[in-house]
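Note to self: the last two entries modelled the partners one at a time, which told us nothing about the interface. This time every component goes in together.
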Amino acid sequence: MLAMNYRGPQRVRLDRNKPMPEILHPQDAIVRVTRSCICGSDLHLYNGNVPDTRVGETFGHEFIGVVEEIGSEVHKLKVGDQVIVPFNIACGQCTFCKQELYGNCHEANPMATAVGGIFGYSHIAGGYNGGQAEYVRVPYANVGPMVIPSGMHPDDAVMLTDVVPTGYQAAEMGGIQKGDTVVVFGAGPVGIMAAKCAWLFGAGRVIVFDQEEYRLDFVRKYAQCEAYNFRSIEDPVVFMKKTTDSLGADVCIDAVGAEAAGSKMQTITGRKLLLQAGSATALQWAINSVKKGGIVSVVGVYGPTGNLIPIGNALNKGVTIRGNQASVKRLLPRLIEHVQNGVLDPKALITHHFPLEEVSDAYRIFSDKLDNCIKPVLVPPSAKI
Amino acid sequence: MEDTKKDYSHIKGWGIDADPKNDPTYPMRKRSNDDHGGYNWERPTQQPINVEVLHSIERPNVTAVFGTSKPPHGLSGMMRRFAFTYGEGSFNHWLPLLMADRVDVVEGIIDDLKRGYIPNIFAERGGKAEWKYNRKGMFFKIAVGVAITTATVMLLRGKSDDED
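The predicted structure of the combined assembly is written out below.
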């Protein structure tokens, strides 16, 4: 089958002869992929910043598809079902899954206890092949996958595997109260969605920071919020304080993670020399911009080692920091309602559709933000939709 | 901090998920004390372990399911096995893994050549897209590469002349 194949930092190619996935566990399903996104967090892998990313792996944790085969214990899906597959792999039985912490399942990733199982996200997240391929093995098929509601556009469905739930949970973890000022660092797909969802929780003001003008233009219209280019501001934290009567924002959201720009020191130590687990500029700004007693919500992805952040300021300001991988299964029913009711329009974020065969160019365009790319989707030739 | 002065009617769905009682919110709100009993839940069926699986020493076993995409192999595999003798909080765990990743890249090229396949690194790096959308940036990268290579060669030549 065709599949994306990682060869090293900033090198990926199409593998035309990857062996077909097999049922390895009675709760497995084999899914024929119909849409697969490239995620901003895939770029951490692409750039070689995530330890234990092995040559030959297939990335891709945002995908939908058609069930082609099921294991002997699968009873909630049948062959032919079109399914949304959450990016987290969750057993549904461990103590964490029972608390709806589906992103923290303890029976899906032997390689690291701090991370749950994630499709196509290196061996640090379980060593699973991902969905940037024609077919993929989906473990615990009774738990995660959900049948796509009739009439839902496949581009909306694929955005419900990660981008929408992660953006929504970023706002949710912010504990937004009516009238709160919410600042979102990053106008990538997740940041855009977080800004949009902040209103659903009753935010009084939503402000987004990024450095790409085309993304700022997009988020201003899509999320009806204020948006600023931090390149044109000397100090984003001082700017924030000035624009919020000197107190800071009630809630700050880090929707960037390890690839953040904006601080030479963070970029050199985090992204170039790998002396820390990515560049923590957005998190640094979030902690410093939030009001005393405020909440910082972290959905930007960082590596496993450590980062330079002003933890002393977090202590002295009484900041609550919340973070987690999105619990996709928990959120899907509500988010499907929002899409069906027209409250959220996730497919509007998709700017590029590429045939799977053009995966190398798709990564380059997304990584370098070429051609005003916001969200790229890969379509395998066997997708048929 | 309710703001009653502003009108948000132009924002579809404003406030529909607001819930002042939902505080503290996820991930703490569904907390149970089931985990006080430790790792004692009824586990799913174990996936047969037919390939080498390195597991964190911070857990007692291999999880019920796991990925089989690329079992450890060669020199990079030896480095990964060493890394997994340390806990997840240790640089002795992560730094060898990062180094193993780089060794794996060289092993990947050697494997390609052994199979008679010459990797097209220009295409793998998305050169076609860069040529189409970012030609200036591409020339800049090439110029930097040439400058670094030239400087390195000159430095090495200089050293070799000094030794003569």
